[in-house]
Amino acid sequence: MPIILPESEIKELASRIAMETPAQGSAERTPVHDSATTPLSADRGMSIWSGLIGFAILQLTFVAGVIASTGVHVGEAWKTIFLVLSGLALGFGAAVLLYRHFASSKPAELEGDYRALKGRAERLLSRLDRLETDSTLSGTNGIVSGTVTGSVATPLHWHVGP
Amino acid sequence: MVAPAFSDLSDRELANLIRDLVVRIAVLAPQIEPRVHARKRTIKIVRSILLMAGGLLTATVVDLWGLIISGLGVWDCIEAVEDDVREMNRQHAAGRSLVQLEMELAIAEVEFERRHGP
Question: B112 and A128 in contact (C-beta within 8 Å)?
């Protein structure tokens, strides 16, 4: 059964979709932020980003130092530094991967949660549709409006009382 | 958004609200990242880190060639982490929307069952 929504709701939904859905084919997909309720994720993202920039600048500085002081060849002392930097790079990688592992919204969980939610919503909608179909098929709609005594209700007013 | 008092809604309004929820849940689908994409991002980060660290290790043996590899690793790493952070922010936002919708659906379900039985 097709979903029929009032025009005002359709407009509201359209504006919401326009705000929340990233533009198709856009390389820069802007994250959806509600600044009033969600300042944390952006902050977390920024801290990783600034950490990475700092790390890259540190490495580049060392490399520039090597080139400036030794010309083309790398001296023995620099080899130790490179080894340390290599260890730092691996440490940084491990830190990023650990952060992703313990992040609050893991893709696998989010996907599963979404599937479960969608299933629940579809079940509820099918119950709603079944109820409406039943009430439409029965001669008197099977329902009397709770507000207008004795009148036959519109198909959506299928219930009286609790 | 102010949460509606579900018990005050008429049957028609509750039905419309449930339909609205179903549409909002369907709209959320493109924002949920498939597991495969997340795995690809992880592989990209690991690759860039290995390039960086491997390049530096190579530099101890074959001088500047290793540093070039390391430079490529840094470049790759910056791109990978930038993409990752952006996508994770999007997933955080999608997760919050999911929780919000889950709450509204739970309330709607309870109200629906209160009126029409389980």
Answer: yes
On the question of pLDDT at A41 being above 60, the answer is no
**CA-CA distance, B88 to A41, in Å (whole number)?**
8
Q: Answer whether B105 touches A (CB < 8 Å).
A: yes
**Residue A23 confidence (pLDDT) above 70:** no
* Contacts (Cβ under 8 Å, ≥6 apart) of A45: A31, B85, B86, B88, B89
The whole-angstrom separation of Cα A36 and Cα A83 is: 45
Can you tell me whether residue A152 is helix, strand or coil?
strand
Residue ranges of A 79-118 with Cβ closer than 8 A to chain B: 79, 82-83, 85-87, 89-90, 92-93, 96-97, 100, 103-108, 110-111, 113-114, 117-118
pTM above 0.80, yes or no: no
How many CA atoms, within 13 angstroms, populate the side-chain half-sphere of residue A66? 27
**Cα distance from A82 to chain B (closest Cα, Å)?**
5
User: What is the token pair recorded at A4?
Assistant: 């029929």
Decide: B53 and B67 in contact? Cβ < 8 Å. Answer: no
Q: Is A22 helix (H, G, I), strand (E, B) or coil?
A: coil
Domain segments of chain B as ranges: 9-113
User: Measured between CB atoms, does B68 come within 8 Å of chain A?
Assistant: no
- What distance in Å separates the CA atoms of residue A131 and residue A116, rounded to the nearest whole number? 23
Cβ–Cβ contacts within 10 Å for residue A55, how many? Answer: 20
**Percentage of residues of chain A with pLDDT beyond 70:** 35
Question: ipTM of this predicted complex?
Answer: 0.72
The tokens for B71 are 């430079």
